[in-house]
Amino acid sequence: MTSVRFPAVAGMFYPDDPVALDEMVRTYLESSTAEGPVPKAIIAPHAGYVYSGPVAASAYRLLIPAKDVIKRVILLGPAHRVPFRGVAAPGMDFFMTPLGSVAVDKKAIEAIADLPWVTISDTPHEPEHSLEVHLPFLQEVLDDFTVVPIVVGDATPEEVAAVLERLWNGPETLIVISSDLSHYHDYTTARKMDTATSQAIESLDPEALTFESACGRIPVAGLLLAAKKHGLKAKTVDLRNSGDTAGPKDQVVGYGAYAFY
Fold first, then answer.
1. Residue 179 dihedral angles phi and psi, to the nearest 5°
2. Regions of the chain where pLDDT drops below 50
3. Termini Cα distance of the chain
4. CB atoms within 10 A of CB 106
């Protein structure tokens, strides 16, 4: 029997109407001026689209030239709702958005299932937004792809890197790390903190990331370890916060888009 993970935050973080959602994402992508080669991996934010959508689009725009090359997306984001040890892959067959369904790559999940910190559980996935908000962007920029959705709980960067290593493969495989940056500081403080985080990412220095650097610091750090091993370089594509996009400047959330080549 086919099982489906239905959207948890459609109508809240982004439109639940497919026409409105399609138009919003396309507008963000067309408004972005990001340029560069197609990356092996990206880091992009996961807040409500009015806040972080323009920044996420800066990373996703880079994927358009490879829309018929990328066939599998390894998508990792932090757990916000359900605490657990390790990382969790779903047992479900499809992830649904207002734009349609995306098949889960079950063979890829089988390839990491023997790692002791990997669990197969739908519970962390059902309420989680950090992966869900990326799917409409992927559906807009790629033609036909499967997804390997992994929620990262109480794990280590080394454990995340080991998962990525198992699934790395070639240009048909894209890695997406979901993370916002600093949370609820004033605009000037947030800019300083997020600039330091961007420098750590570009230096591939996971030890420079602190608890306040990014909510997805563990999956980000895992990517940095893997990127260093594979000789990748990181580039900051966009760096803004909610004070730049759609919010006041007394308490902002930072958003960064990063590409790894």
1. -160, 135
2. none
3. 40
4. 16
Assign domain 39-260 to a CATH class. Answer: alpha beta
**What pTM was estimated for this model as a whole?**
0.98
Residue 63 and residue 39: Cα distance in Å, rounded? 7
Q: Which residue type occupies 154?
A: D
Residue 117 in contact with residue 159, Cβ under 8 Å? yes
The pLDDT tens digits of the residues spanning 60-106 come to 999 999 999 999 999 999 999 999 999 999 999 999 999 999 999 99
Q: What angle do CA 246, 13, 24 make, to 5 degrees?
A: 70
Contact 226, 185 (CB under 8 A): no
